[in-house]
Write a structure and sequence with these properties.
- The structure is a single chain.
- This protein is α+β, with helices and mostly antiparallel strands.
- The protein has 6 helices and 7 strands; from the N terminus they run E-H-H-H-H-E-E-E-H-E-H-E-E.
- The chain has a 7-stranded mixed sheet.
- Helix 1 crosses helix 3.
- The radius of gyration is 15 Å and the shape is globular.
């Protein structure tokens, strides 16, 4: 069976989309980054990233659907080689949601993390109000490990996050 998605390295041609995703203030309250990035900074990142998780301490990949359209981005960040774990980040573009892309991407990133990177565990912080993400990670077998008060700031107030872990 062919996957709905393909993961690939970030290319210079992805700069506009990367700029749009990183500077979408609506996404800032669902992750730990809440600052805008300049085109220069993103261009520099794309130009100098090695795609070696041991060097960069992260790996970021674009998500393409079966038609070759880029539908999102997935990353493994805060790589901890001693404990063989990394934090997962996943963004599916608004107009591409609810089509199975997130599930297909998680299956692929799990396989990549286990077979290629030899990780033991992935973890993710989810805003406890983000029902779609909570349902996705529960469906995919992530286990709730805790609740962290005042973890995510949306520019006006703090919100709790739930920590989920997935053992590969």
């Amino acid at each position: 069976m062919t996957s709905l998605t393909t993961l690939r390295a970030i290319e210079p041609e992805d700069l506009d989309l990367l700029y749009r995703i990183e500077n979408d203030a609506r996404l800032w309250n669902v992750g730990t980054s809440n600052v805008p990035y300049s085109r220069y900074v993103l261009h520099d990142y794309v130009a100098h990233v090695t795609n070696d998780i041991y060097t960069d301490r992260q790996v970021r990949m674009m998500i393409d659907n079966a038609e070759g359209q880029t539908v999102g981005i997935v990353d493994l960040v805060n790589f901890d080689p001693a404990n063989r774990r990394a934090e997962l980040g996943l963004v599916i573009l608004n107009d591409c949601r609810r089509r199975g892309y997130a599930t297909a991407t998680l299956l692929q990133i799990h396989d990549y993390a286990l077979r290629i990177l030899h990780l033991h565990q992935l973890y993710v912080y989810v805003d406890e109000r983000n029902e779609a993400s909570l349902a996705l990670f529960r469906k995919m077998g992530y286990c709730l490990s805790g609740r962290i008060s005042d973890w995510l700031f949306d520019g006006e107030q703090y919100h709790p996050a739930l920590l989920f872990q997935y053992v590969l």
